[in-house]
Amino acid sequence: MTEPCDLTATEARFLIGAKKLAPSELLESCIARIEAVDHAVNAIPERDFARARIAAKRADEAVAHGAELPALHGLPIGIKDLEDAEGLRTTHGSPIFRDYVAPADQGVVASVRAAGAIVLGKTNVPEFGAGANTRNVVYGVTGNPFDPTKSAAGSSGGSAVALATGMVPLATGSDTGGSLRNPAAFNGIVGFRTTPGLVPNEKRGIGWTSLSVLGPMARTAIDAALLLSAMAGDDKRDPLATTIDGRQVRRPEDFYPIAPADLSRLRVALTPDFGFAPTERHIAEMFAEKTGLFRHAFAAAEDTTPDCRDCDEAFEVLRAQNFLSAHYEKTRTRPQDVGPNIIANVEEGLRYSALDVARAQANQTAYYRRWQSFFDSHDVILTPAITISPRSWRELYPAEIDGKPTRTYFHWLALAYAATLAGHPAISIPVGRDRLGMPFGLQIVGPRGGDAKVLAVAVALEKLLAGDPRTARPVPDLAALKAARPISDSPNFLGFG
To answer: What CATH number should be reported for the domain whose range is 4-489?
Structure first.
């Protein structure tokens, strides 16, 4: 018998609307799952069970009274601990904010609450989202549910693990160099990097940068579309949230309900590395093996890549610019409270000149234009979502891949930031396991503004692949997690050692 917490968000929402599942019943199932397995993985360290129960009771009453129910009515949700949720701590994984309690919801959190979602807690992150390995000195490490000794990736690592283990049906995330897609790939769930501005973010420090976005995470692409329909919108505080004289350009109804794409009409490009990413041989071979099972479903499937020259250099400079804006003062005034990844980014940023930034911006523009030419003859690009199979979380970052040194501590995220630099939407969906038994993520990159198209392709592929154990979404061993020792007993659980 399926536990309510293991239902997809879409299934649960249908049953709630049909009066066959009470929001409070779903909530209690999610709470029971958290209490049963979170000791093994540490995904939701800040919890709001008491207020969630009050909200669920109100949701029950709305159903009973025949009220019009919003899109996410009664669905528990995890909020990434970089986003403010009123009355809960927003620590950013930093001792500087260890005791900071948000006085109000961030815009995106207010949006999902307005759509009926019930905030169950905050999900764990790396310090300030940096490093793609979910570790910090406030809450400790988040382990991979398929093997808690391995990395959950990040920065939305806690959200991904909470979804994979059935603690919540929906979760929020954010993405610069793959922070939605990397943990989705490592944990066998879905993470969607949206077009900049589609999900408004009034907290972006440099308002006009396209690198950082907010987006949905879920267990299925359809669920991600459902959550996106509540997250998408307009906010005058975000200069990238496009309007025309006050008229919202991107509407929630554009994303849900979403019909599967007709794969037989798509021209698809496939690349294991975009021509430059340091993809592990094992992952490249798995990509060829997995896509070999379904590439025949497309009208055309070509092994090719857009021209990605200068991607590493441009992304490194522009990323460092963001870190200088956000964290320079912290490293100057409170260096003892800042971890090695933040310090490394700030130090790197200080080495660049205004000329370096100008060149990076010019290279990003040229890069973007080359991508537009490529998409004139291709509908989507398929790649592995991440360059490696999960490794030990004790490894702060991969210093080498297949014996070759990485150029930066985030170089292993190059498959993700290739799409980031172009500003294109991209999603990671689970496609079975790799040879080490860990989840394998497939990245689907769409054209400029093609968020709905990416979701439609993901939904169609999800449906095609679900019936084959080689490509179906993997599920962690919950019994093993229940019986596991607390991850907090592990050496170096807290900190970066």
So the answer is: 3.90.1300.10
Helix (H, G, I), strand (E, B) or coil at 62: helix
Maximum distance among all Cα pairs of the chain, rounded to whole angstroms: 63
Dihedral sign of CA atoms 126, 127, 131, 137 in order: negative
Residue type, 64: A
Backbone angles phi, psi at 267, to 5 degrees: -100, 115
Burial of 404: CB neighbours in 10 Å, binned 0-12, 13-18, 19+ = exposed
Q: How far, in Å, CA of 62 to CA of 215, rounded? A: 28
Q: Name the helix (H) or strand (E) containing 476.
A: none
In terms of C-beta density within 10 A (0-12 exposed, 13-18 middle, 19 or more buried), how is residue 86 classed? Answer: middle
How far is 99 from 296, CA to CA, in rounded Å?
Answer: 54
- C-beta neighbour count of 69 within 10 angstroms: 17
* Torsion angle (degrees, nearest 10) of CA 131, 344, 211, 99: 70
Beta bridge partners of 269: 302, 381
Q: Where are the alpha helices (DSSP H) in 91-156?
A: 107-114
- Other Cβ atoms within 10 Å of 418 Cβ, number: 31
Q: Give the C-alpha separation, 450 to 430, whole Å.
A: 20
Give average pLDDT by consecutive 10-residue segment, the chain, 497 residues: 94 98 98 98 98 98 98 98 98 97 98 98 97 96 98 98 99 98 98 97 94 98 98 94 82 91 98 98 98 98 98 97 96 94 93 97 98 98 98 96 96 98 98 98 98 98 97 98 98 87
In sequence order, which ranges of 232-379 are alpha helices (DSSP H)? Answer: 281-292, 311-333, 340-351, 354-375
Residues contacting 309, CB < 8 A, separation 6+: 276, 367
CB 102 within 8 A of CB 85: yes
User: 221-231 and 107-114 helices cross at what angle (nearest 10)?
Assistant: 110
For 81-124, list the strands marked E by DSSP: 118-123
The amino acid that residue 109 corresponds to is V
Rg, the chain, Cα only? 21
Q: Which helix (H) or strand (E) holds 404?
A: strand 404-405
Residue pointed to by tokens 């992952």: 283
Rounded to whole angstroms, the Cα distance separating 54 from 104 reads 18
